[in-house]
Every structure is written in C-alpha cells, then in structure tokens.
Amino acid sequence: MLNSYGGVPNGKIQGFRAPFLNYTANTLNTLKKQGFTYDSSASAIPGDAYWPYTLDYGMANDCWTGICGTKVPGIWEIPMYAVPDTGGIPQLMDVYMAGNPEEVTKWSTDAFNNHYNGKRQPFGIYIHPTHLTGYPGLPDPKPKLDGLISFIKSVADKPDVWFVTNQQLLQWMKNPVKASELKNQDYLKCQQPVIDKEICNGLDDNGNNQVDEELTNNCNFGTTTFKTCFNCPSTAPTLSTPVPPSSAKNGTSGYRYPLPDNCDTEWWDPIGNQCLCTSSTCQYKDTAVPVSSSGKDGANGDGTSSAAGGIMNTVKDKVDTAAYLAIATSIYAWL
C-alpha cells in the first residue's frame, strides 16, 4: 500500500506501528521475519519512559500486554512517549480529543520539559492527520495547528534539540557521536532536490509556497478518503486485500506511473513517467522486494504489484482495517 499508492520505496519501509497499538508476540516475530528494523507500538508513561532499546531481552515497558518475556533479537522498540493531561492521564495519538489547543500545548510543553530536564529520552510528537484537517460540520482545526506550530517553534529554539525521524534516531543510537559532530553525519543532512518544475512528490518544487498544487488524486470510498500522487486503488484496502488493483490501467488517460526501483520518491514524476535525478549524488537503487501481492490485476494496473504487503497479510491480530488508512506522523525532538 505505501509503495504502490504512496510512492515509498520498499527499502525505506523500516518501521511498524500496530493499529490501535494492538500487538502481540506474533506481531513482533513477524516483523523480524519480514526484515523490519523497529516497532513503535509500546506506549510509555512517565514511569517507564525508557530510551529506545532492542528486544534482545524482551519488552522493557508496556508490560500489561503480557508479552514482556518475548525476545526478538535485532528488532528495536521505539516507545510512544505519553503526554499526561491535567489529571495525569497519559495521552498518545488522541491528545487533541482530551483538551482544547491551549491545554494540549501546555501538556506537551510540560511533558517535553520532563524529558529535557530529566533523562533526556527522545520526545515524540504523534498526530492523527484528521485532528488537523478541516471537515464539514467539525470545528476549524486551525487553532490546533497553530498550537502545534507554536510548541514546535519553542522547542526548536533550544540549541541542543534536533528534530529527527525514527530512522535518524536509531542511526545515532547505533553509533553515538558528540553533539558537535552531528552536523557532519550523512544521515542528518537534508537538502531539497532542485527541480525546475512542480511534480507530485510532496515538496514545493517551484518555490511558490504550495505543495503538489492540483496534482494529487483524491481517492474517495465513501467511508474513507485520501489523496495520493499515484493511482487510486479500485476499492478501499482491507486485511484480506491490502493492496487492491489500481482503478486506472496503464495506457489510459490519467494513469499515474508507479515508482520504479531505480529512483527515489523526491525525484520521481508519476505523471510524466520520468526520474529527474541526473547525477550520481541522487541515484537510488531499491533492493527490497515485495513479500506478497494482492489480486491478479496488480496494483500498478498492468499485471504487476510493487507493494510490500506481507506484514498486513501475516499478522493476524484483530484490528479495524480502516486503521491502515490513518497514517500517523511521528517526529522526535532529540535532546
């Protein structure tokens, strides 16, 4: 799903978070079999907010699940650090359902300061896109977004805080360096591609402060909707069919070309069927392969499928399939 309809290279799908955080020992063992690097399904209240750790000796927190003795050598656990509300009740993804924007900003600031002035564990910012998206009949999300931006700016002003992805965090933990040496680490360098036209890649390529303007597909299935730079699936994804066939066929009007294995997302023009990387510095080769496909038609609309959907087929936890459509954003303030 992420590869075929999100344009994420298979090799860059390294982590997993269980829908509704419903995971079992079988979930963790399956992640290892499928070659994932980390899981991030274990919630961490202030009392067990450990640094990320490997599962070589089992789970260190979230032991109420009854799987603390499960050892999965080589897999990392990046805990979801809770934000306690006024009553001390821990909040994770749904913090915006527990209070108004002003309260949430204060709770987040207090929780961050507990990490910053304590053991310096990473601090996660977890958001459901629906909390910051405007829908007819629902309150304007702008105050929530403004509060989030204000919080991020206040944290970013600190000279010893870095905003990193899970992958960057683990890169450092595997090979720690001094703060003065971080700027020289390749995994922390970030430079936007220089492209002379706007393509559908999630970036503002032409510098007009708009991202992918009028280039995305709106995929509406009645009960759920999402936008993508690629083709829409013919039906909503489910556990039994995690990567449905494409609604558009190769060669027909409006067809979007899938990401090839020799181009990275930021350089790929799915409408023009062109990789705009022209030098060795931006070349990319995805060596990962799909572990399963769904349907004989294939997600690409040409009889093939480039989806890494095996984890969705092999993990048998009882979850709401719609949760796979809710992509959560995780940003870590690295102290």
From TrEMBL:
GO term, biological process aspect, one: carbohydrate metabolic process
Database matches in Gene3D superfamilies: Glycoside hydrolase/deacetylase
SUPFAM superfamilies reported in the protein's UniProt record: Glycoside hydrolase/deacetylase (SSF88713)
Disordered: annotated span: 290-310
InterPro entries: CE4 (IPR052740), Glyco_hydro/deAcase_b/a-brl (IPR011330)
Descriptive protein name: NodB homology domain-containing protein
